[in-house]
Amino acid sequence: MRRFFIEPEAIQGDQAVLGGGDAHHLLHVLRLKSGEEVELFSGDGLVHRARIEGGDRDRVQLRLLSTSDTPPGNLAIHLAQAMLKGKKMDLVVQKCTELGVVAIHPYLSTHTKIAAPEPGKIERWQRIILESCKQCNQPWPPTCLPARSFDQILSQTGTHDLRLICWEQAAAPPLRHVVEGLAKPASILVMIGPEGGFSSDEVNQARAAGFLPVGLGRRVLRAETAAIATIALLQYIFDDLL
Ligand code: SAH
Fold first, then answer.
1. What is this structure's pTM?
2. Residues lining ligand 1, judged by CB closer than 6 Å?
């Protein structure tokens, strides 16, 4: 069944109105007709099965038929990803959404190869998040925060139970050794570096701020691979592949 995101405010009782680009897509690209059913995601864990009742150019009226409610997971993983060049960040955003991260925190660090996010990038990633959620039936879309500096990530993320910085240098103990045996955290922040990696200074700063350096083995992974692998491994270690 076709899926659409809808603002919760666009639902009143059992009536919903889909507007803008989505209405155009539903009516003129997919050519769905009155009487056909779609799924509406309101971004808060609710998924509504709804029947199209009518529509004009950029408005579709729907009647809700049933609603299912999925609670949020009990391991909230946040990804702090240094901004990557080209389309690599798109891949990270898409795959980490599939895996179920709660938020993506883009940031700029010493060896980041781009000076500042291009205009419209955050909006682009938000669109990728919604597309990915529709594709993988994820009713809790992650938030993509505005880009920050490395220092801001260190100083503004102190509320997480566990903060990890992935570092490919031999000095970083293996991920499993660091986290195994810890009580299951409610919230983890994972920090992955840019293509150029972290400076030792940055790792020391992160350590001083309470981050634990962790390694993923002797192979140097692309940042994209490191992000995806770390999230999946944490879910496995903390038994969150439910
Ligand atoms: N400094 C490197 C490569 C950085 S890889 C160089 O230019 O040779 C990009 C990011 O992926 C790193 O900052 C780190 O966060 C993560 N990463 C890659 N391989 C890793 C590994 N084996 N262990 C832990 N983190 C790794």
1. 0.94
2. 166-168, 192-193, 196-198, 215-217, 219-221, 223, 226
